[in-house]
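$ ./design --mode recover --in tokens.txt
reading tokens...
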């Protein structure tokens, strides 16, 4: 079983479009899939689940869709605050939250505070996240430490950068073992670029609202067939 599964939840709008419905219906359906995957991950012993909910590039979408998504994220956080705490799930949101509505930032802070002592599944939600910016910000913080005389330039190692990335909060399992992208697209779209250096990628045709227990089980079985060598052995 992979310790850390990351998912690019793609295909909500296409799922709705295929049915002649507005994109908002697809996003609502995507939340239901997320609920199920979180529940299954907890039940099946996955330690960390990271989901790509909203990228920095997504701010270029139509304002009406963005406003709906912000409201949806806020409602999801409010509705599941008690549930996450009760189910021993620790939740944190990573990304640049400066552009998020203040009400959403407040709900996120409450959700993180109420679950910070939980010891079960670690749920990391990438919201207004950029993998490139994550790396740049980490390097800037280290450079600031060098300029302040706190560390020397020789201390700027891979391990030091790794510790400064937003995803470091999950501990030893911070690098995903398996990354799943739904909807048939075969790219990672600026998601966890540093952390996925040795991650197994799986691209599935299912649109995110259609992704559930069967699809997750199939993905885990496919992962278990892989031979992860980390560059140590040849073919």
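writing sequence...
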């Amino acid at each position: 079983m992979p310790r850390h599964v990351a998912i690019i939840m793609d295909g909500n709008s296409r799922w709705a479009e295929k049915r002649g419905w507005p994109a908002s219906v697809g996003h609502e359906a995507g939340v239901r899939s997320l609920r199920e995957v979180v529940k299954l991950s907890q039940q099946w012993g996955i330690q960390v689940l990271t989901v790509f909910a909203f990228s920095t590039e997504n701010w270029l979408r139509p304002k009406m869709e963005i406003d709906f998504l912000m409201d949806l994220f806020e409602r999801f956080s409010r509705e599941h605050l008690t549930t996450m705490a009760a189910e021993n799930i620790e939740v944190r949101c990573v990304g640049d939250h400066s552009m998020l509505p203040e009400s959403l930032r407040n709900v996120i802070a409450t959700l993180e505070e109420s679950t910070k002592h939980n010891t079960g599944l670690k749920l990391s939600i990438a919201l207004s996240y950029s993998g490139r910016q994550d790396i740049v910000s980490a390097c800037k913080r280290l450079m600031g430490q060098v300029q302040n005389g706190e560390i020397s330039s020789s201390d700027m190692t891979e391990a030091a950068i790794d510790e400064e990335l937003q995803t470091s909060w999950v501990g030893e399992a911070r690098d995903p073992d398996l990354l799943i992208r739904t909807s048939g697209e075969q790219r990672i779209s600026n998601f966890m670029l540093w952390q996925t250096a040795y991650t197994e990628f799986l691209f599935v045709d299912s649109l995110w609202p259609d992704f559930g227990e069967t699809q997750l089980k199939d993905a885990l079985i496919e992962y278990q067939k892989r031979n992860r060598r980390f560059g140590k052995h040849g073919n």
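exit 0
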